[in-house]
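The freezer alarm interrupted the setup, so I double-checked each line after restarting. Inputs confirmed:
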Amino acid sequence: MIRVEGLVYEVGTFRLEAGLEIGQGEYFMLMGPPGSGKTALVECLAGLRQPSAGRIEIAGRDVTAAEPRDRGVGYVPQDYALFTTRTVRENIAFGPQVRGLARAEVERTVDRAAGLLGIEHLLGRRIPGLSGGERQRVALARALAAGPAVLVLDEPVSALDESTRESVCAELRRLQRELAVTTVHISHNLEEAFSVADRGAVMCHGRIRQVGRLDELLRRPASEFVARFMRCENIFLGAARGPGPAPETTAVEAAGATFLLPGRRLGPVQFTVRPENIVVERPGDRRGARPAAAEIPVRLSRAVDRGAYVRLELNGAMRLVAHLAPRAFAELGAAEGAELVAVVRPEAVHVIPG
Amino acid sequence: MPAPPDPAIDRPLRPGRQTFRGLATAAAAAFALAVGLLLVVDLVFIVEFWLRASPESVGKFQAEVFSAETRRELVLSLASATLTTALALLVATPAGYALSRFRIPAKVLVDTLVDAAIVMPPLIMGVSLLVALSLVRRAAETVGTPEEPNPLLWGLFAGIIQHKAGIILAQFFVAAALAIRSMKAAFDAADRRVEDVALTLGCTRFGAFWRAALPQARSGLLTGAVIAWSYTMGLFAPVAIVAGTVRGKDGTAILPTRAYLEVTNGQIEIALALTLVMAAIAMTVLVALKVAVRRPAAGGFGP
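Predicted 3D structure, all chains:
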């Protein structure tokens, strides 16, 4: 559906280089820290910036040199950029009117888009009196009313409060499935990304660092940067010490602890351990024999309840961060300063390639 | 009709802020009062003249102030200021947009030259235009002969100097410069992503300017119009130099040049009376314009 090949866009000292493929009807999440080039990339897709090299294809058509109006891209910028001198109805009708639809058809399109977003009651209102969530829905309805082949959303929920954000994300997902419109969504919020998208890419300094399913980006980061961006705090650089006790494993020493990593490895090895895949136990509590990549004696230095999980900061030979379900943490019954054992499951360990 | 309550203005303030609000409001009120007092002083001067002058002098005063010629000059003042403002906005709107949005070679120079038109003393502006027109005349005589000058260039010279077109030319430069300033500020403050969205929704570049950028700059457009119109209504030095102060049916005198003539003739009471008439009409127009601006926009410009 969308194919970006060898795209180069330069402005000042910033250089964007990107290649990307997004399938028909896919909900694609573009992630990365501020200044990584996410907005520049989607603005190239929308035709608002002209790349100096490369090719952009949308629905099998080369649109690299096409005007924004001829690309079939609906664009919702970060602050929604609504027409503040117009009513909600006039905002939504803008696209169909500009494209010369008959009055009755414009009205039908507006009513259909407003119905999809549940904003029929706002149609007569002016923009300045609307809440953030209402503005967001109006911006979406305006983009959808133009019948785009691709919907580009630049941080569409970043200005909303937590509860509104969740409901809007659910609505975005529902709408996207209902309309099957290919959607590119920019965000740097992982919860938001996982709540709506199938696949995504992580960008940094104008380059796409990794593309894949979101769970792959989370559990199999291709670089230290992607691992850190996906909030993996346990990233270690170790040295291979020789074959492990199990076949096809290597003993790797990192920060005073020994890990058994899968495969035969030599020299320095960088690997991550997802915090939610660390089991924390009291010493001597081990229930039955289970394979472990490492068992590390630690002291609980801090426990922060984050609602869905409890974040434990563990210090021993190395600093580890573990996420426990609140119930598991309550059963553990550990206070700050408690002596514990961090059991790293083999599947929790991911070796960063290269 | 009272303005509807504005939550940003009518909200209750803490005591410290009330003090500041009082001081700030006092500054605005003091300045407005000073201007109002000037007008009252003029009025008192005229009334005092009316009471002490001889019946002949009062009769002459009445005849001068309420003459058909004065009415003609007033109409010419209003018409020329309005036409100049329209022309100024016609140039200032795209110029302000270009200065705000586009990379222009030597943009700082262009920007500074716009300011130069405002900084230049009005008298010098008139003299500069006169010099430029004399060059046009010389060019007409060089291209043709002194007896038979080039008709196009001579027409340009003769159609402006001592003609009504000269009024517009003399007023235009500063009016346009003021309007460009206002429009540029308005476009600077407008969100350019609104234009980006308009482009993706089907607009051409011009369509995005017309339908998305211009409605956002609506207040700047009206502010520019008010400033340009007010300024040109009172301008006399360059008008007097370029268009002259010819009175009569096809004359080029406008109320400010006429007031200037009356002052130089020692008829201060007539000059003040004419100024008050002009001020009253100008204030009425400006109040009407400001009330119109305060109304919510009815959907901007198109589609």
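Quick read of the result. The radius of gyration of chain B is 23 Å.
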